[in-house]
Specification:
76% helix, mainly alpha
Length: 105
C-alpha cells in the first residue's frame, strides 16, 4: 500500500485558523441573537430592568397588533388557529389561545 493513500495532506495552518475563526464568528452571531432575545424577554417581563426599553416594546407591540388586525391573511390564519386549538378541561383558556384572542380584539 502506498503511503500517499493512507495519509491525507496537511491543511496549511493559516487555513485551519481561518476555518476556526469562521466557525467561531458563525456561533457568535447565534449566541448574540439568543442573548438579545433573552434580555428583551426579561425586560418585557420586568419593567424595572429598563423602563424606556419596556415602554418602547409596548408601543411596538401595539403597532404589531394593529398591523395584524388589518391583514386579512393573518385574520384568516388566526381564526383557523383559534378553532383548532384544544381547550383545557377546567374551562380556563391556555396561554396561546388567550394571546390569539387578545390579538384579535
Amino acid at each position: 500500500m502506498d503511503p500517499k493513500d493512507i495519509y491525507q495532506p496537511q491543511i496549511p495552518r493559516q487555513d485551519r485558523y481561518a476555518a476556526r475563526a469562521h466557525r467561531a464568528e458563525r456561533w457568535a452571531g447565534w449566541v448574540k441573537l439568543a442573548l438579545a432575545a433573552t434580555v428583551l424577554a426579561a425586560i418585557w417581563q420586568d419593567k424595572a430592568l429598563a423602563p424606556p426599553v419596556h415602554d418602547q416594546m409596548q408601543r411596538v407591540a401595539g403597532l404589531a397588533a394593529s398591523t395584524l388586525d388589518r391583514s386579512d391573511t393573518v385574520q384568516a390564519y388566526l381564526s383557523m388557529a383559534t378553532t383548532s386549538l384544544p381547550s383545557t378541561t377546567d374551562g380556563d383558556i391556555d396561554p396561546v389561545s388567550k394571546l390569539v384572542r387578545d390579538l384579535r380584539q
